[in-house]
Amino acid sequence: MTENLLFEIEIYRLYKEEVFLGNSVLEIENLRASFRIKGDYYAAVDGVSLTVHENEVVAIVGESGCGKSALALSIMGLHNLKTTKLEGQVNFQSQNLLSLSPAKLNKVRGKDIGMIFQDPMTALNPLATIGRQIEEPMDYHMKLSSAAKKKRTMDLLRRVGIKNEQRIYGQYPHELSGGMRQRVIIAIALACDPVLLIADEPTTALDVTIQAQIMDLLKELQNQIKSGIILITHDLGVVAEMADRVAVMYAGEVVEIAEVRELFMNPLHPYTRSLLNSIPSNMEAKAKLHVIEGIVPSIQNLDRIGCRFAPRVAWVPEEDHETNPQMHEVKPNHFVRCTCYKNFHFPEGRVGEKDYVAT
Amino acid sequence: MLKFILRRTLIMIPQLFLLSLIVFVLAKAMPGDAITGAFAGDPNATEERKEELREKFGLNDPWYEQYGRWIGNAVQGDFGSSYMYKQPVTTLLAGKVGNTVLLALFTLIITYIIAIPLGIVAGRWTDTWADKLIVTYNYFSFATPLFVFSLLMLFLFSFILGWFPIGGSVDIKIEEGTWDYIVSKMEHLFLPVMSGALLATFGTIQYLRNDIIDTKLKDFVKTARAKGVPERKVYTKHILRNSLLPIAAFLGYEIAGLIGGSIFIESIFSYPGLGQLFLTSIGARDFTVVTALVMILGTATIIGTMLSDIILSIVDPRIRVE
């Protein structure tokens, strides 16, 4: 009986490794992105290591200001290099993106890495037609005749769910609604068949019904294309729906990383638990919504020694934290930073912990 | 587009009418009239004689009757006669309008030739020595009074070095229509144009620099970079096109401003244009000439505004009218 169970678990692990952990597309090693503020550099992304595999959706979640977007922009090399210092390695197709010259980096971005931006109202050039903007990456990465480019653009428009592509092709961004523009932005990201897609809060700026449409589209596209996806969001619903693995970021660090079911069923780090506990539930009427006390400290005021989440869980005794918090593999593929998770409990008299996975 | 231009042109008619009314009434409200101007300092002119002349020229009629007479003729291209030069205003202006338009046009072109590249360099490479140099030049050109700078140019290049003529618009000995005539015109234009242009650049440079710095941080520029567009193309295709919009929109106003604003330049370089005529006419209360000139300047402004609207609707799809 026990042997049988162990065998099944082994099979399950093998199966998962087969499905989820194919060839890695992107390996981030100890990435640190520091911004210059009044002459000093402060790390917004502070030693992040992360691997994205083929056909895998890795979600990065966290509050505003915890370094999610800074991480995405670091991968793409979109920070202003005069005020930003990048350290560590971003290995993609056996080269470190951080050490590439701008010209070489331009051969990668837009072609092998596509990026979907947060705000569709501002992410398109107001003076160029939709068709032109989708064709632009093809100009630099593909050798196609203009007729072929146009045909490809039409296909892309249809793939992102735009029905009257003939008309949209010649229109300008201001003539389109927010949801349509986000579809166009997705089409731009997909224009040259990227192997890695970075979606930086793709639904944050949209209203709820459009959010659902865009998420459905992303899910559908994810099934079609075999690329790895980094999905940056603070919407845990989106994470549950789309992600294979989840990395929880706090104050520039990854504090917990696990497969999506594992993370929702068995969250360990106090921050992850607090986040999940903050989801409003319609299963029962709660008197109060759970809130995490305080805010993410700004990168200038961040105390970089000890557990960074400690100030926001003040009731946890100091000796529970590690002096130099490390990632611990508590289960296969489930990593947690610091030791404070072991005895963590929410304080009495406050809204208690509930089952996170309502469905 | 044609419809838009047509409609925009039609709107000009009531604008011009209103302008003419205001100009006429304001000119009437000036102290004195053509008669006091013409006989200023003449001890032999008696009050009776002046009154007689006023009656003769209809200057004692109510203002609306005078306006009716004036506008009726003006529509037919007759702005009356100058009291001072004793010749039709149209003939008087004919020779000068061309000179002023030429001066304004060249000043504008040179201004843009200097200002646009400098604005782009300063905006693209902010906080470099080049940017600092350009911004410094900008402060100087903004702070330097036009008449001081013009006099300095005149003193240095005409008087001391003798490279350029001291005044006029063309050498009178040269026959019209020949190559030498054109060369002589250019020689006479050079100093007034350069003086005007070097000081007029600050607006364009400042606008362009600020707009580029602003546009650099826009999201769509990030999108362009994420597409793998080379840096140079990010500027030419995305940032500059957007940043040049306000400059293009301002073109019409610039033209209007230059035609009206060349009074000092024309006086200092004794350049026979509208500005110089304007000053002498006001001094002499040459009422017909002043009203005609103000009308011309006003019309230039109205046309300039229309031009700006049309240019903007061509370059910016957001305000393009279907």
Q: Specify the biggest β-sheet of chain B.
A: none
Number of strands of chain A: 12
Estimated radius of gyration of chain B: 24 Å
Distance between the termini of chain A: 31 Å
Form type of chain B = globular
N-C termini distance of chain B: 7 Å
Number of helices of chain B: 13
CATH H-level superfamily title of the domain at 93-258 in chain B:
MetI-like
Overall average residue pLDDT of chain A: 84
Top CATH class of the domain at 93-258 in chain B? Mainly Alpha
Number of strands of chain B: 0
Report the oligomer: heterodimer
* Relative strand content of chain A: 15-25%
Strand percentage of chain B, roughly? under 5%
Set down the secondary structure blueprint.
The complex is a heterodimer of chains A (359) and B (322).
Chain A: H1 2-19, E1 24-37, E2 40-53, E3 57-61, H2 68-76, E4 84-92, E5 95-96, H3 102-108, E6 113-116, H4 130-141, H5 146-159, H6 165-169, H7 178-190, E7 196-200, H8 208-224, E8 228-233, H9 236-242, E9 245-250, E10 253-259, H10 260-265, H11 270-277, E11 327-331, E12 334-337
Parallel strand pairs in A: 3-8, 3-9, 6-7, 7-8
Antiparallel strand pairs in A: 1-2, 1-4, 4-5, 9-10, 10-12, 11-12
Helix pairs in contact in A: 4-5, 4-7, 5-7, 7-8
Chain B: H1 2-29, H2 34-38, H3 47-57, H4 63-75, H5 89-124, H6 129-143, H7 146-160, H8 179-216, H9 219-226, H10 231-261, H11 263-268, H12 274-283, H13 287-315
Helix pairs in contact in B: 1-13, 5-6, 5-8, 5-10, 6-8, 7-8, 8-10, 9-10, 10-13, 12-13
